[in-house]
Amino acid sequence: MTLKIYNSKQELADRFADFFFHFSKSKEEVYVSLSGGSTPRVFFESLTERYGSKIDWKKIHFYWGDERCVPPAAEESNYKMTRDFLLSKVDIPDSNIHRIKGENRPDEEAIAYAELLEENLPSKNELPYFDLLILGMGDDGHTASIFPHQIALWESDKYCEVAKHPETGQNRISLTGKVINNAACVVFLVTGQSKAKKLKEIIREEGAYTGYPATLVAPGSGNLIWFLDKEAASQLDSAG
To answer: Hey, which CATH number is domain 2-229, 3.90.930.12, 2.160.10.10, 3.40.50.1360, 3.40.50.720?
Structure first.
């Protein structure tokens, strides 16, 4: 595990844009799983501004770690946010964009997306294999769309599951632990004071950390990187 702590969300986004740019040159084809949220949006803006014309987008293949079960034009859609702040601003082939179809029946789409992963991604350990998998973490310690009240979904034999938001009951499609932990490199992007307590418990293995899905992220490659802003890291001994 590697911790990278920055003074602000913007600095984090800029440094991760640097990371992504160099990572994009590491292979002939690069398979990436994206996340939603406010921090990826700032990262997308930085990436397009700094490296939009410098990356060979034909070799980048985008997938998603989770999606809300809404149409692609809905404001809540992770795909829409990515389209608005990244995809529409770079020269990436449509065939390289593999969205979760939130407008479809959730149970059917979970099966369909799992099949898409199996058909399109490289395989390692007899599982779909991402080069880079980006995650966020919620205030409750959830990641992708695996929430504490459904933490058992992490251990599913399936590649994708239908999850429910604990407060709204909204259906979501999420990758499961077996796919997430099979990635070559997993990166968390975590910002904000509201994440500080849970983050400390997860990193230091304290308190109720075993009940937080983010604790279960442990790629077999050993390549796990936490990009944090100073607020999120404020309760860690190494912060400051």
So the answer is: 3.40.50.1360
